[in-house]
Amino acid sequence: MTCYLRLHELAVAVHPDVTGADWDVAHRRWLQADGVRGRDDAFEAMPVTLIELDDLPDTDLSPFAGVVLSGRSDQELLASRRDDIAAFLERGRVVVFSGRLTTDWLAGATPFERDGGDAAPPGSPELAEHPMFDGVSADDLGAGFLYRDGWHRPPEGAEILARRPDGTPGAYADRNASGGTVLVHGGTNLLANAVHDTSAARIVPQLLAWVGAQANRGAGAAL
Fold this sequence. Notes:
Elements: E1 10-14, H1 23-32, H2 36-44, E2 48-52, E3 66-70, H3 75-80, H4 82-90, E4 94-98, E5 113-114, E6 126-127, H5 138-141, E7 150-151, E8 159-163, E9 169-174, E10 181-185, H6 203-217
Parallel strand pairs: 3-4, 4-10
Antiparallel strand pairs: 1-2, 1-3, 5-7, 6-8, 8-9, 9-10
Helix pairs in contact: 1-2
């Protein structure tokens, strides 16, 4: 559990150029992080800007390639900024969400659907070939990478990135519902994988690189 890092209080804005960041330095800081101060110290070594979620309505997101949000974020606040988030996507940018969607604020996405019966069986996820998962072992991610109690139904044409052990989608990327890219992951914040001393930690720099690449190929304004 990484609740001590309080990632849900932040919108993590990804810089358009992630080259030059020293992931080894950042990873060492993540492994030592024992609270908010350690979290912020680790983020300082990464190509991101931290935005307090309460400050999001007054923040100009145009300089950024994308934003990473957690499921424990205030989704009522996010719903109140739905038009701003949609405009951000229409400029070709990227929104990454991990958690359970409960309100209508993210283009093309629908609320988390809880399984009608028993939870999905425990087991490692089935990973698609994707830059975010390059060199990542599904066994290192383990049964906790995707929620067992439900899933998000992907929009038509979405790219399935990971499946639960029962075969239902656990994470997807959608490029059809907006001018940008939406990544929905039914699990704990993807950035929290940085605290692991396994191949799972590779997800973090590779996710940021993917966000930058997606934004730079987007149809909106140039970064």
